Amino acid sequence: MNQAALHQLISSKSKEKNPETPLNLRLATNLSLIQQSFFSIYSEEKHLDAFQKLLDLFPKLFALRPEALKQQDLKRLEEGNWYLSEKMVGMQLYVEHFNEDLKGLQEKIPYLKKLGINFLHLMPITPRPKGENDGGYAVNSYYQVDKKYGTKKDLLELAAALRKQDMFLMLDFVVNHTSNEFPWAKKAAQGNKKYQGYYYTFEDETIPKEFEKSLPEVFPETSPGNFTHIPEMDRWVMTVFNDYQWDLNYTNPEVFMEMLTNLVKLTNMGIDLVRFDALAFLWKKIGTDSQNLPEAHNLITLFRMCLQVIAPGTIFLAEAIVAPTEIIKYFGEDQKEGNECEVAYNASLMALLWNSIATKKTNLLYRSLTNIPAKPKDCTWINYIRCHDDIGLGYDDRFIEAMGWNPQQHRKFLLDYYCQRLDWSPARGLLFMHNPKTGDGRITGSAASLLGLEKGLDKKDDALIQEALSKIIMLHGIILSFGGIPMIYAGDEIGTLNDYSFLKDDSKREDSRWVNRPQQDWEIIAEVEKKGLPQSKIFLALQKLIALRKENPVFADGNSFALCYTGNDHILAFERTDNLKNGLLVICNFDENPQVVEASWILKLGYFAKGEPKDLVSDEKVFLKSGLLELMPYQILWLKKS
Ligand code: GLC
Question: How far is the CA of 80 from the centre of ligand 1 (A)?
């Protein structure tokens, strides 16, 4: 039982009307874990005062929480794990690329509802430096709204409008770093010692050089190294991402408390999910790669346990794009199980799906998924195909080798396949952060362009277009049924192609991730009901799949995922079940040719017990021929058992 479950239990027993009671009860419930996590990071001898200060902070922060949200918190506590529901279908979008600003976005709620979206992730809308700012991930404030998006009032209105429609809102909390224009950074640069202690600053290069021995580079092309010299203060500051993003120094408990306050102020604007950006990097230690360290996990638990006391209706998403066995740890392990982040990006599935498209095989996917430990109850994935970032090839070398492939050669093949170095490949991606010395690199590009739609349309090749559409629909069909919250990247619902306009913008040219951050095409959307257009085919298919998901509770994440072994390397099959013996069998073909699977295992699972089952996707009955099930190229089947 995790802490959230305890709160649910206690809240159902207490009908106390004193508004302070929930806070005190929740604090009492979490106190031992808060204390433990706090003193595991900050030694008790040195930081007793800081702990006292933290305890004093709770009533102050609770007093800041608006009444409507306090009520919502209580309601959510009673309901339990609202985020596991089949009704959750997300969209990630850039406000300015979607419909100009926050008001514009609010006007488009009917469109989102028409598609079936009930959960929005808005890319950063906080103030940021002019010029380069990593798409807003260099923050000048944690809870103000940048003028170009509108005002704080607009955000509050949007949040209220979404709440009214039972929709959910997620914003980023860029917890690892601030911009160099953040008030603390400015004061530090001016020589203020207190604020220099809020970052990792050093008077000379001795310690930075020690760190560099084992620190990898996140953006080796545009921001090599992990430290930046700031002439104004004549000190070196740690900048793991870009040189204008200063890493916060969490060895200082003041930083934790200030950031907790920022987090509460952010959530008080009506935020349901907080995306904990780059949280794997929160703790740094010489001699390590300073990622996924145990202290980082303790710190996240500390944030989680504190916010749960103040705002229990808000949950955390882990943005940890790290090795599969490390991602799962952000749900919390041992005593912390279920007490870190409730949701994590399923980056492993995403990267494996792209591998399967290029190789037309699912063997690496099977091998990798089998080796990921089961996630805790109460925790779930965000399943996605594309997002605003690149696709990293973070597969486990051991598994690539087990396929009989050379890991380096295999990664080279994937880069060649997706980044236009093979004439026969349908993909039109771009290379990101390519290192010619090591051959390492990542991939950018929109889903539709990576899956061949751009090339198909250019060459007026109907077969290629059709194949791309099938792939787009199949991949979305997988993320909608895998278990967890599907997150559609805005534009993918209408097959938006690469946007090359970033090449003309000096502040973006060096960062090819902008190729997959396009403007929403409302002209195409106006035509979406016209059945013949490729964009309409995608939209209508996704709209239908989303509606099916929402109608069938078996799609909720009850932690019931099981891979099915078909004996055919081109096929991915998995089953989801619930306690009522309902089942959903998903079968997909990653090959360009029709494929068959021997079907006795499907019969055994009971999918033909009441005659031929209907495939929900095509709305057609599924027949076996000589005990074999045939799938067309890139077909996905959703078979239901009830
Ligand atoms: C996350 C964001 C990415 C950003 C980085 C630094 O990984 O997704 O876009 O560059 O954090 O904040």
Answer: 30
Composition of the chain by helix, strand, coil, percent to 5: 45, 15, 40
Task: Using the mean position of ligand 1's atoms as its centre, give its distance from the Cα of residue 109 in Å.
Answer: 27
**Is 401 in the active site?**
no
> Do residues 271 and 159 touch, judged by C-beta distance below 8 A?
yes
pTM for this predicted structure: 0.95
* Cα of 568 from ligand 1 centre, angstroms: 37
Cβ–Cβ under 8 Å, residues 309 and 73: no
d(CA 488, CA 88): 11
Tokens of 567: 């004996």
- What is the torsional sign of CA 132, 135, 137, 140? positive
Catalytic (active site) residue 172? no
Question: Exposed/middle/buried for 208, CB within 10 Å: 0-12, 13-18, 19+?
Answer: buried
Residues 106, 120: Cα–Cα separation, whole Å: 11
CA–CA distance, 475 with 487 (Å, rounded to integer): 12
Per-residue pLDDT reduced to its tens digit, 211-227:
999 999 999 888 999 99
Q: Among the options 132, 277, 342, 511, which is catalytic? A: 277
Which residue has its alpha carbon closest to ligand 1 atom 4?
Answer: 137
Residues with beta carbon inside 6 Å of ligand 1? 134-135, 137, 174, 241, 277-278, 319, 388-389
Q: What is the pLDDT of residues 538-567, one digit of tens each?
A: 999 999 999 999 999 999 999 899 999 999
What distances in angstroms separate CA 522 from CA 98, 119, 441, 458, 540, one per listed residue? 9, 20, 34, 21, 16
Report the b/e string of 216-229 with b at 16+ CB within 10 A: eebbeeebeebbbe
Of 130, 98, 101, nearest in space to 112 by CA = 98
